[in-house]
Amino acid sequence: MMNTEDLAGLLETLCPMFLLVDDTGHIKQAGPTLQKLRPNAPLVGQSFLDVFELIRPRTVTTVPALMSMAGAKLNLKFHDEPRTALKGLVAPLPNGGGAVINLSFGISILDAVRDYALTSADFSGTDLAIELLYLVEAKSAAMEASRSLNLRLQGAMLAAEEQAYTDTLTGLKNRRAMDYMLAHLVSTNSAFALMHLDLDFFKSVNDRLGHAAGDYVLQQAAHIMVEETRSDDTVARVGGDEFVIIFKGMTREETLTAIADRLIARLNEPMTFQRQSCRISASIGTALSIHFDVPNAAGILHAADLALYQAKRDGRSCHCLYSTLSSAQP
Prior knowledge:
With 330 residues, the protein is an alpha+beta fold. The protein has eleven helices and 13 strands.
């Protein structure tokens, strides 16, 4: 006949969450996984009913009543925190020798794995809970992979969107971005200034030194425009050597004139490409949204163009405000 030690060893292999109790209800042996739930409070020697609260059936409040529950399902919790929910099954031993009570987590297994850092080694190899854990791990891995993929896709979409609004040569915004910003400002009735800048004598640089030199000049000009504007201003290359700068919230003509003068002065300075001097200048026309009763993007662009053409007629390398033109109509 199997003795208690042999029975306990067998149960540890087959049922790592078992309890072996004597006829008084005191715990004589606890499975390794069950003891892991209370590492600082040895279960052996304690009364089963002092450790666990029977939730169902509620009529079980004594050891004899517990021993009479052979084959019946128990729902119980630990008395102390964390009050992990458990399911149990009582198997009385012959001749009133106590009982084996096999416990499991049931649907609370995921909480238990989280709370006690359990692994597959803490369960019987035939326990279906292992399959559930594998499924949960697989789902978690799949969800993490999905999140990672979504982040990459979002990054790619943002990069593609940024590329669609960027001039690849200069890194400035392009005409599409300018149109979008103008439409937004007009639709929100925001005050702004629009500066149209054209590089003078740029064609001669291209013709004399080649397109590589022309590209260099465009990049240097773009760098100057970014340096002379605020971070929330929109600087866009809208044509070969044409640029538009949108100043949100800026309506003081003196400030805009000062910015234009700085741009002209810096763009007048010679640029050196492969030891060759590249000389250009800039003509600038500026229009303000506040000078229009009903601002619209096309109208403000046209007004800035008119001012730019006047700057060209005035001898180039100068700035003209639309508001100073005799034909300007508010």
